[in-house]
Design brief:
Layout (H helix, E strand, L loop, with lengths): L25 E2 L13 E3 L4 E7 L11 E2 L1 E5 L3 E9 L12 E4 L6 E6 L1 E6 L8 E5 L1 E3 L4 E8 L24 H5 L26 E4 L23 E5 L2 E5 L2 H9 L9 H7 L3 E9 L3 E5 L5 E10 L2 E10 L4 E9 L1 H8 L9 E5 L4 E7 L11 H8 L2 E11 L14 E5 L4 E2 L1 H5 L14 E6 L5 E7 L1 H9 L11 E5 L8 E3 L10 E3 H4 L4 E5 L11 E8 L2
Parallel strand pairs: 1-26
Antiparallel strand pairs: 2-32, 3-22, 4-17, 5-6, 6-16, 6-20, 7-18, 8-15, 8-18, 9-10, 11-17, 12-16, 13-14, 18-19, 21-31, 22-28, 23-27, 23-32, 24-25, 24-28, 26-27, 29-30
Length: 543
């Protein structure tokens, strides 16, 4: 199977984007967390209990990443993704002129660039060679891509709350859109590569200079039929580039009334946006990801304005409210594994899956036998007055269970009780590529010499020091921990669960929501003691 490249995305004080390739995870011998703990005593008998829970539908409106397509995991099953987005005018009350006409040489197209980097720079009018990121699955997959008009009114604020809070939309609510959006397919070009035979391509999109009749021009402005003499007018990164129905956009946008074009709210009530979905035609499936901040619809037209009739263009951007939808068809293997989860004693295997799949709940330090509000093991450790030098949790991969699937390249540990990062995460200021950011905290996939994933290690030394030695009763609680896959090591935001784990745990990490990948880990009751989930606490005692 041909694999695309994975990348992560960061929201830091706004939306900051960082991109990296799959190759940027660690191999054994270059473990970022490390295991050199000379002259320290080791406690690896800390009680730990872990079990998986289905994530279920998650809030997905206005995520930084959108996707469409089908991702097939050889263990977890199939995930289908689609999204709906509002459109925004370039300015309020645009004046398109009169005598508006969309001619044969005019284009109306949708462009959504993939995440990519230049691999080989072009010379002359040749194309740059690109490497794609954030493309999950088989690049030979053929999809049936459909772009239709959305006819469902997307609310920015919740009308049931007197518009005092943001409206929440969830990953399982695609039927809200499909139930009313029954119009014709707008990407109806005769070139089926733009619709019923769509493939993800890494080729650069180049536009060449032409005259009013659409003939190519050379550097002297003369008509030429020799491609070597074409003059590059515009270069566009690889992405979805599909022609859209000219008549529809002439009527819906260019000939809209002044009131409909007067502001964003009126325009969104008139034109509620686009619904984009892609169903599998052939191949094992593919799911490209997009940052829609760089996407646009370009509408070319001719009109009379300021006394002149000429060719013009306007753009609609896709930065309005948007919702991603995921439909998970879980395999029987996955269902059986989840059915075997034990919240009382902990589980032998743990299952992590993004796109609203499953996450893990963990509890440390065991029982509170004397029922005084503090686990007995915590009391014992506090009585020893230990100085914590380091503490890690290693999660070994149950590779034979993965059924040949590609495991997640990073996992994320967080405070599930308070639904916030643990202190080791927030205190880690290490930077770098997305797979190496927060490298002291860890969670990066560690590979063996055969490039197979072996384990993940996460540092929790400051978290345990706060629990065992902290004097602030507000922060030294023994909280439940959560574990999820992540597609953004720098993103610690949380997304609402439609069905909470319990009255306290109502969210899951945002960065796991748009990740389609998963992984299987050995739990605390694993038969193989060497791979069993455990904490390694390195310490010294006060003199």
């Amino acid at each position: 199977m041909k694999k695309g490249f994975l990348s992560l995305f960061s929201i830091v004080g706004g939306l900051a984007l960082i991109v990296s390739c799959d190759a940027e995870y660690s191999s054994v011998g270059s473990d970022l967390v490390g295991d050199n703990h000379f002259n320290f005593e080791l406690n690896d008998e800390i009680d730990i209990k872990a079990y998986s829970k289905y994530t279920g539908p998650v809030q997905t409106n206005n995520m930084p990443i959108s996707s469409f397509g089908v991702y097939n995991d050889l263990f977890f099953g199939e995930t289908r993704s689609s999204f709906v987005t509002q459109l925004q005018l370039p300015t309020s009350a645009p004046d398109f002129g009169t005598n508006i006409d969309v001619q044969a040489t005019d284009s109306v197209y949708l462009y959504m660039p993939y995440f990519s980097t230049i691999d080989v720079a072009a010379t002359g009018n040749e194309a740059n060679t690109y490497l794609l990121d954030s493309i999950y699955g088989d690049v030979d997959t053929v999809l049936n891509l459909k772009v239709v008009e959305n006819k469902y009114t997307i609310n920015q604020f919740d009308p049931t709350d007197n518009n005092q809070s943001i409206q929440k939309y969830y990953s399982n609510q695609e039927s809200l859109i499909t139930g009313v959006s029954t119009g014709p397919t707008l990407n109806n070009d005769t070139d089926t590569a733009q619709n019923t035979n769509f493939k993800v391509l890494s080729t650069e999109i180049i536009k060449y200079k032409t005259n009013a009749a659409g003939a190519y021009l050379d550097s002297e402005g003369a008509i030429t039929t020799n491609p070597e003499n074409y003059v590059v007018k515009e270069r566009m990164k690889p992405g979805v580039y599909v022609n859209l129905d000219k008549t529809f956009f002439k009527t819906k946008v260019l000939q809209a009334t002044a009131a409909q074009l007067s502001n964003s709210n009126n325009f969104n009530n008139h034109f509620k946006g686009l619904f984009i979905q892609a169903n599998l035609v052939s191949g094992s499936g593919i799911m490209p990801h997009f940052n829609l901040a760089d996407a646009e619809i370009v509408i070319q037209y001719h009109s009379l304005l300021d006394g002149e009739t000429e060719k013009r263009q306007t753009k609609l951007n896709l930065s309005g409210t948007r919702i991603n939808f995921y439909e998970n068809t879980t395999s029987m293997l996955y269902q059986n594994g989840m059915a075997a989860q034990d919240p009382v004693l902990g589980s032998e295997k743990l299952y992590l899956k993004g796109n609203g799949g499953s996450h893990v709940i963990m509890e440390l330090f065991g029982e509170d036998a004397d029922n005084n509000g503090t686990a007995d093991q915590i009391e014992d450790l506090r009585a020893q007055n230990i100085l914590i030098n380091d503490a890690t949790i290693s999660f070994f991969i149950a590779r034979s269970d993965l059924n040949g699937a590609s495991e997640a390249k990073r996992i994320y540990l967080y405070d599930a009780t308070n639904q916030t990062p643990i202190i080791d995460y927030t205190a880690d200021s290490s930077t770098g590529t997305t797979y190496n950011v927060k490298s002291v905290f860890g969670g990066v996939l560690i590979l063996n010499s055969d490039e197979e994933g072996v384990y993940y290690t996460i540092r929790i030394s400051q978290h345990l020091n706060r629990v065992l030695n902290g004097t602030n009763s507000a922060t030294n609680k023994n909280v439940k921990l959560g574990l999820s896959v992540t597609d953004n090591a720098a993103n610690s935001l949380m997304s609402e669960l439609l069905t909470p784990v319990n009255p306290l745990i109502t969210k899951t990490p945002y960065s796991s929501v748009f990740s389609p990948r998963g992984t299987i880990l050995y739990g605390n009751t694993a038969t193989d003691a060497d791979k069993r989930l455990k904490v390694k606490l390195y310490y010294t005692k006060e003199n």
